[in-house]
Amino acid sequence: MGLRNYLQGLALWIDYGLYILFSPYKFKTFPNKIKRILVVEELLIGDLIVTGPSIRALKHKFNAQIDILVNKDMQEVAESLPYINKVVTDKDKLDKNYDIGIIFHKGSLSTSYSLLKNKVKYRIGCTKVGVLSGKGYFLNKKILPNVKEQHKIDDNLDVIRSIGVETMDKSLELLTDRDSDKKIKNLFKEAKLKKFKVVIHPGANYKKHEWVKERYQKVIDFLDKELKCNIIITGAPKDVPLADFICKNTNAIILDLAGKTTIKEFFSVIKSVNLVISVDTSAMHVAAAFKKPVVTIFGGGFPKVWYPYTEKKIVLNKNNRTDNIKDDDVINAIKVLIKNETKLRMW
Cα separation of 91 and 97, whole Å? Predict the structure, then answer.
């Protein structure tokens, strides 16, 4: 880890030096008036959610129109972010003449060039990517290299700090769609879910982030028999086989929604429950945005960078391997959250 950080830092400083020496764009002055801002985040659900504090701070500082450029599969996520005026999913169809363009994550040469081509007046980019990795070359301000292990929210805030935008509010927010809320409410009613409701989200984009699937049985038995909870499983279409396995290996009655909801409906599900149990993936950030207590199982990821940003959390991590986390570890975490959360004492 130490050698990797050293080499990464060295590469970034070399890139930054080349930018300072050779970039023809660094002499651009910051615009006097900021009326239109374009933010760019072309990765996945969690990456988008943690841009929220930076977008909110930009809105409060400039009171400007804020549009966002995202991967086309992430439109519903972007529409659920507060303070966004317009969602763009095609970089070739950008409006002209934004005052600022902010690339929060790695981006690409084509993305940064699109901002230049569409006459974005002032372009800035994130901390952990250098000029040689694509997007840095067309920036008017490249952020100083930073390999410090910090939460991704702070990585994003470092970008906007470079243009004088400060905030102490790092909380996450999401909006839900009225139709999605209504659909999920009716679905819960049809399934006769009246008691304390728990979401289990077992699937992840990376297999090394997933927990041992056989260990869910004891956790579900605890939730069902001892706590008398209603249990819901969520997930993407690719998670259906995993959800099927979990459901077939327990006698508990489970509402299996894996692969059966849109992204907005998934958000409404998390908003409507009392507790979330999730591996290292988007569900933990959604839970944090809705202030829901969350138990997170970490494996091969980076818990200091990606933990759910909420006080109502327990993060389980044992040497970056999910198979080191036992079913009793999850059960004990649930007990602690229930004991410490006022709303949980009332049910």
Answer: 14
User: Token digits for 82?
Assistant: 């507060």
Structure pTM? Answer: 0.92
Q: Which residue has the tokens 């840095």?
A: 136
**Neighbouring-strand partners of residue 123:** 101
223 and 127 in a common domain: no
Q: Could you tell me the residue range of the domain that residue 300 belongs to? A: 178-345
- Comparing CA positions, the residue from 141, 168, 132, 144 lying closest to residue 57 is 168
Note the pLDDT tens digit of each residue in 109-144.
Answer: 778 888 999 999 999 987 555 455 555 778 888 887
CA distance 127 to 156: 8
Contacts of 200 (CB under 8 A, 6+ apart): 216, 219, 220, 231, 232, 233, 234, 246, 277, 278
Task: Let me know if residue 172 belongs to a domain.
Answer: no
pLDDT of residue 147 exceeding 80:
no
CATH label of the domain that carries residue 190: 3.40.50.2000
Specify whether the CB–CB gap between 286 and 49 falls below 8 A. yes
Whether residues 209 and 147 share a domain: the answer is: no
The answer to whether position 54 is within a domain reads: yes
Alpha carbons 293 and 250: distance in angstroms, whole number: 24
- β-bridge partners, 67: 38, 86
What phi, psi does 112 have (nearest 5°)? -65, -35
Does residue 107 have a pLDDT over 70? Answer: no
Of 110, 130, 161, the residue at which a domain comes to its end is 161
Indicate if 316 and 202 belong to the same structural domain: yes
Q: How deeply is 304 buried, as exposed, middle or buried, from its count of CB atoms within 10 A (0-12, 13-18, 19+)?
A: middle
Residues 6+ apart with CB under 8 A from 188: 197, 255, 272
Task: Provide the number of structural domains found in the chain.
Answer: 2
- For residue 218, give both structure tokens: 């004891």
Asked which of 128, 161, 194 is the last residue of a domain, the reply is 161
Domain membership of residue 284 (yes or no) is yes
pLDDT in tens, 289-331: 999 999 999 998 889 999 999 999 999 999 989 999 999 999 9
Residues 72 and 206 placed together within one structural domain of the fold? no
